[in-house]
Amino acid sequence: MPQSTEDSINKLIENKFYSSKKFAEEIEKIAHDNKGMSYIDAIVFFCEKNSVDIESVPKLMSKPLKEKLKCEAMELNLLKKTSHAKLPL
After folding, report:
1. Minimal CB count within 10 Å: which of 1, 20, 54, 56?
2. Per-residue pLDDT tens for 18-74?
3. What CA–CA distances, in Å, run from 1 to 7, 9, 17?
4. How far apart are CA 81 and CA 55, in angstroms?
5. Is residue 43 classed exposed, middle or buried when 0-12, 13-18 and 19+ CB atoms within 10 A define those classes?
6. 51: left (phi over 0), alpha (psi -120 to 50) or beta
């Protein structure tokens, strides 16, 4: 297969299917662009906008995004607070 055809196929796959890196970048962008929007809301918004099943999200989440969600959930009392020190973001 010629290199240009392979590159175009890879780009098509990247645009159609999200990697954890691309997903995290999109969520960060949505949360940053919409002041006051939480990461939880940004993920729900992204899933609704792109017709992504919300149950497939854990597979797409990167470790840093999971940590941000965990901190946010603890602040909202959705998760039990841990004894780990938290740095201000």
Report:
1. 1
2. 678 888 888 999 999 998 899 999 999 988 988 888 888 888 888 999 999 998 988
3. 10, 11, 22
4. 24
5. buried
6. left
Closest CA to 30 of 14, 11, 15, 50: 50
- What are the tokens at 53? 């099943």
Q: Which two tokens stand for residue 88?
A: 């201000």
Nearest CA among 68, 61, 63 for reference residue 89: 68
Closest-CA residue to 47 (of 70, 67, 18):
18
* Model pTM score: 0.70
Element (H, E) at 34: none
